[in-house]
Amino acid sequence: MQTSFTAEQLRDPDTAASNQVLRTCVHCGFCTATCPTFVLLGDELDSPRGRIYLIKDMLETGRPATEEVVRHVDRCLSCLACMTTCPSGVNYMHLVDHARAYIETSYRRPWAERSLRSLLAMLLPRPWLLRLALLGAGFARPLGPLIPGSGMLSQRLRAMLKLAPRHLPAPSAVETPREYPAQGRRRARVALLAGCAQPVLAPSINEATIRLLTRLGVEVVVARGAGCCGALAHHMGKHDPAMAAARANIAAWSREIEGEGLDAVVVNTSGCGTTVKDYGFMFRGEPEPWRGRAERVAGLAADISEVLTRIGYAPTRDPPGLTVAYHAACSLQHGQKITAEPKALLRRAGFRVTEPAEGHLCCGSAGTYNLLQPEIAGRLRARKLGNLRATRPDLVAAGNIGCITQLSDGGVPVVHTVELLDWMAGGPEPTALAGVVATA
What pLDDT, in 10s, does the model give residues 318-327? Predict the structure, then answer.
């Protein structure tokens, strides 16, 4: 693709990086076939190729973002299926992230839109605030269907109340920074990203991760000062809050690296993992020691399925006789290119693993997408659930809390992969499977 940025524009490192991405695109259009919004809407501007043209024009002219550009970029899920499909290696993730940051500084959204985005950016990264908000939303949940209107605000309010859990788990001890010693001879020492929304919505995921790793001889540390990875703010174009969150993590994990050392930074939420693995790029223009620290942390980051494969996971229980439909989270299969490990681990644990049709298409969760674009997200959820149920599974396994939340209440229990692996290696039966095992 030809670009016409000026020398002055190219002095900006973000513009220079986007220029390289744009020049890699050859207009082939392969990305349109795997883009969820193009599949649903059939609009070229709601495909990666169409958005690339809009972003290119916006950045080259230097004009403020228009309503048209914002509308189509906002509809992008950042599922990154286009990057898996692209034969030219276009890094669409970096381009659309730059576009969102540009939109955030050059476009004034309507008041209600600005307020909602600011509220989400404030609540979601802070577990104690999110817990309070979800407790309130849980009480108001029955009122959701009564909210009148078909406008976007009404849709979003209904979506928020529908996604609020009926019962919020009690706070878990694993939210507190501390070390969990390995059982037996220590084989490795890792830091676990405890996260922000996940400990509130499903603390059992971190609990299972720690139990399983320590049982396998891995010392786990939840580092003081580490928290939200920054992805939620980053994908809303809020650059400074995203960098602040990432900087806090990098500082916390660097203290561990420089102290007793770390063999990995373990992430069990794949959306977070994609961002942590990109810290090196995010901090490429930062002065030392931050750039070097970010690159080191990014190099150590690993999904829990990668770590379990590396250290040799093995079950201790007999096969449960259950069929698991594996839902491949977009951030895992497209963002991190991890496809084989989770399925191989589930089979090793004794499950029969099936895969749904259209496994490359997003379920509609995508961070805050199901709150900000509820109509499209709802259509994608229904399509994904239909494909999952068609495999006739006993349960669904996924590696991302966003997907688990999005697909819950769909008629089939949805469980994090690590909870199933922990169960088969001596841990407790996941709560979501109550009644499933007895009827298997």
Answer: 999 999 999 9
- Residue 258 sits in the same domain as residue 344: no
Same domain flag for 184 and 295: yes
Among 145-154, 240-249, 317-326, which is the least confidently predicted range? 145-154
Which of the four pLDDT bands, split at 50, 70 and 90, describes residue 437? Answer: low
> What CA–CA distances, in Å, run from 309 to 186, 267, 269?
17, 14, 17
In the numeric block, which tokens belong to residue 200? 């509130």
Q: How far apart are CA 351 and CA 347, in angstroms?
A: 5
Instruction: List the one residue out of 309, 274, 249, 313 whose CA is nearest residue 402.
Output: 274
Burial grade of 67 (CB within 10 A; 0-12, 13-18, 19 or more): exposed
What's the rounded Cα separation, in Å, for the pair 200 and 206?
A: 11
Based on the fold, state whether residues 220 and 287 are members of the same structural domain.
Answer: yes
- pTM metric for this prediction: 0.94
> Do residues 429 and 422 touch, judged by C-beta distance below 8 A?
no
Identify residue 366 by its one-letter amino acid code.
A
Torsion angle defined by CA atoms of residues 250, 253, 259 and 261, in that order, rounded to the nearest 10 degrees? -120
Q: What does the pLDDT read at residue 139? A: 81
Report d(CA 310, CA 115) in Å as an integer. 44
